[in-house]
Amino acid sequence: MQPLAHAELIRQAALALGFARVGFTPVGPVERHRVYQEWLERGYAGDMAYLARDAAVRRDPAALLATAKTLVTVALSYAHADPIDVPADRLAGGPRGTIARYARGADYHHVLKEKLRSLARTLGESIGGAVAFLPCVDTAPLLEREAAQAGGIGFIAKNTMLIAPGAGSYVLLGELLVDVECEPGVSLEPRCGQCRACLDACPTGAFVDAYTLDARRCISYLTIELTGPIPRELRALVGDRVFGCDVCQEVCPFNASASDGARELAPRAGYGRPALRRLLGLGAAQFRKWNKQSALRRVHRAQLLRNVAVALGNVGTGEDLPALARALDEPHALIRSHAAWAIGEIGRRGATEARALLQKRVTIETDSMVLEDLALALR
Ligand code: B12
Ligand code: SF4
Ligand code: SF4
Predict the structure, then answer these.
(1) Quick check: 80 and 268 in contact, CB under 8 A?
(2) Is the pTM of this model over 0.85?
(3) Which CATH class is domain 275-379?
(4) β-sheet bridge partners, residue 90
(5) I need a surface site. Which of 122, 165, 336, 344 has the fewest CB within 10 A?
(6) Does the beta carbon of 252 lie inside 6 Å of ligand 2?
């Protein structure tokens, strides 16, 4: 079979599996690896040490599978309707948080990998021989957006997202390395034109410039990747977001008409706008049940409760103080310090009971980070 026929065979099988787009690029050194290196050197990766550890592998996907000839790139859509459209007065249970769209359904890592394995099996059966392959999704040391652009799936936009024209940026990326030659796709140039809506809308000002994100300021990093305290000066900017952020995609005109999210990634009920007080009350076992088989597993319980406390500090009222007071007794100092901050913020908005709660905790607290947050909140 010829490279063109291989590509067509894979394309048809991938579309039948529900992928929104499929692309092909010969395995070889990555064009913008230098950009990646510089991004790391400027410290924009923050605490994501794994990005620096395997930086060299990201230079050439051949390091992952020596016999690989083609990097098949795929995109799976999660453009589902947004439950945020539900009017606030119809939401019972106190203030709500927001979970980023990609994490509202099943864990995309598993969904994509399963589909990629199935794609490899179909390829092997069709060409009547064993195919060496490696499925990759997110965690492999690959520059996935770069690969997707090179394969012809879409273009890298000013918000650094890979946009597939017609499908938008609410697509998750995966790759299949195969030892089969395929006709390469045609790489797309950026199509943002004069638009800069995403750069202006970012709540934390995380874009250094078009195409360059300082992850240390990105709410996605702050709520998911960062395991320590969220810098105090950024907490108010996080708003009600408890896991990830979609602002720079929500404002993008390329997503205005995006729909057709994959069935397997459909949002689960209650996972778009969860009640914050309920989340703050999740014990260890309930937490494990809450994030089971979902991309939400990326955070530990203390990280989630830290995020929830920050969100309550931003959108909560005096009615949320009892829940935050219980969080002040949590064994984990990270939760206590952010609960103290949140109580201080609610107090600043006029809830008079806040001060007494903070003063009571000061008398028994021993952790220096929590004591600092308590002192600042009392000021
Ligand atoms: C680390 C990481 C993050 C970090 C850093 C993000 C970033 N922009 O770098 C944090 C935690 C902040 C993050 C956030 C999110 N992430 Co993330 N993340 C990754 C990961 C693991 C590595 C990305 C990376 O290497 N970053 C380093 C920078 C330098 O790379 P880059 O942004 O791709 O930059 C390239 C371009 O900007 C380009 N470039 C530079 N200059 C120029 C100039 C021009 C003109 C052009 C055209 C290009 C260009 O060159 C760079 C190097 O290739 C990838 C998975 C993977 N293995 O690739 C997922 C991935 C990028 N993330 C993904 C998602 C879904 C998200 C979030 C939307 C999640 C959320 N809702 O909260 C946000 C989006 C924030 C944003 N605007 O980027 C998806 C993106 C899918 C898509 N359609 O693009 C990926 C591909 C995972 C997946 N398998 O689907 N993420
Ligand atoms: S995900 Fe949110 S915080 Fe991060 S760059 Fe986009 S808008 Fe800014
Ligand atoms: S909002 Fe505008 S500038 Fe940003 S990615 Fe979309 S088209 Fe490009």
Answers:
(1) no
(2) yes
(3) mainly alpha
(4) none
(5) 165
(6) no
Q: Name the residue with tokens 């060496």.
A: 132
Fill in the amino acid letter for 148. A
Atom of ligand 1 nearest to the CA of 174: 89
240 catalytically annotated? no
Tokens of 151: 């394969």
> If we measure between CA atoms, which residue out of 55, 56, 69, 45 comes closest to residue 132?
69
Residue ranges of domains in the chain:
1-274, 275-379
Summarised one tens digit per residue, pLDDT across range 109-123 is: 999 999 999 999 999
Q: d(Cα 272, Cα 58) in Å, to the nearest integer?
A: 33
* Amino acid letter for position 364: I
Q: Supply angle C-alpha 25, 107, 281, rounded to 5.
A: 150
Tell me: the pLDDT tens digits for 137-194? 999 999 999 999 999 999 999 999 999 999 999 999 999 999 999 999 999 999 999 9
- Which ligand minimizes its atom distance to the CA of 207? 2
Identity of residue 286: Q
HEC-encoded secondary structure of the chain: CCHHHHHHHHHHHHHHCCCCEEEEEECCCCCCHHHHHHHHHCCCCCCCHHHHHCCCHHHCHHHCCCCCCEEEEEEEECCCCCHHHCCHHHCCCCCECEECHHHCCCCHHHHHHHHHHHHHHHHHHHHCCCCCEEEECCCCCCCHHHHHHHHCCCEECCCCCEEECCCECCEEEEEEEECCCCCCCCCCCCCCCCCCHHHHHCCCCCEEECCEECHHHCHHHHHHHCCCCCCHHHHHHHCCEEECCCHHHHCCHHHCCCCCCCHHHCCCCCCCCCEHHHHHCCCHHHHHHHCCCCHHHHCCHHHHHHHHHHHHHHHCCHHHHHHHHHHCCCCCHHHHHHHHHHHHHHHHCCCCHHHHHHHHHHHHCCCHHHHHHHHHHHC
